[in-house]
Protein 1
Amino acid sequence: MSISEQKSRMRTMFDSVAPRYDLLNHLLSMGIDRGWRKRAIRNLKLEAGDRLLDVCAGTGDLGFEAISQKDISVVGVDLAFNMLERGNQKRKERRFSFV
């Protein structure tokens, strides 16, 4: 299977689970995903005004956690359009943009 075929299959898979991704992530990890995000952001030692690039952002939970801890800007990038759309639905007036 070529790399472009692998990307297409991965995109399709994540696009299909996007509506229930957050619920599945929280349930299957028994909530551990929330804790590791908090720790990851604390360990980055971000300062006010910093920018964070979240690669494979999914629905944006890492970026949302970063914004909740610091006055920063976040850009999320993901292969799966539906994951980004779900993140945009969750986003209200936060400095977080998806590409």
Note: The radius of gyration is 14 Å.
Protein 2
Amino acid sequence: MMADGRPCIRVRTYRSEDAAALARLFHETVHAIAARDYTAAELHAWAPVVPDGRAWDLRLRTGVTLVAELDGAVSGFAALDPPDHLDLLYVHKDHQGRGVASALLAAIEARARAHGATRLATEASLTARPFFAARGFVVVEDQTIERGGVFLRRFAMVKDLG
């Protein structure tokens, strides 16, 4: 906790030893937080099991992955496919609403700019759409994707970084 009462959020570069914790965080967050917007079948199609640690590590080492720590505990992560695609942004189910996603997004936007990007694109879930809209992203396409025979709604969104 900072002197002014705000939580201390530290954003750092991903390390391979983070893989297992972030795989669990991803799975638990999908099932706990997105449950207000998606059915049980949709959640299972999106995140059927905790991702395999080695495969997850390979995915997170591709591009730029940042990890947020809240008061010393891993609380979220975001992944950028340079120069301009935000692939993942997840915050631990117990750390929602504490500024973690905003800190991660700010850091990802800075990295995207450093890679020469003038815009940032993402595919947002029903749950995440309001977060992104409040931070300047606009919907460019309402999408339906198929995962294991189940159809999920999401939104292609972009933000001008200029």
Note: The chain is about 30% helix and 35% strand.
Protein 3
Amino acid sequence: MSIFSPYTFSHSGKVAKNRLVLAAMTNTQSHADGTLGQDEYEWLVSRAKAGFGIIVTCAAYVNHDGQGWKNELGISHPNHFKGLARLAKGIQAEGGLGIVQIFHGGARSPLEVTGKQP
């Protein structure tokens, strides 16, 4: 089996064109409200264009009180969904399969970011 052979996720049937995976990286390129930033979009889509079969986003907070840092991608509010859908379409258009890394900062979520004491 080659890293260039397709990979099928057995639970969903989704197929990645190869086994090359862009690991999740924290790059703080989203907006303060957690919506997708243009730089983040372009970076991730360009990785699909470069040939990665699977693109994993940076950590995306699942609840505002679990946000870990400023300009972190969010997946906790309907305002986030339009950008995430755009990102998925952009990655797919370049032949990649997108995966969102979900995240909650827990006790390390900073008060100055969330407005709440962890």
Note: The chain is about 25% helix and 20% strand.
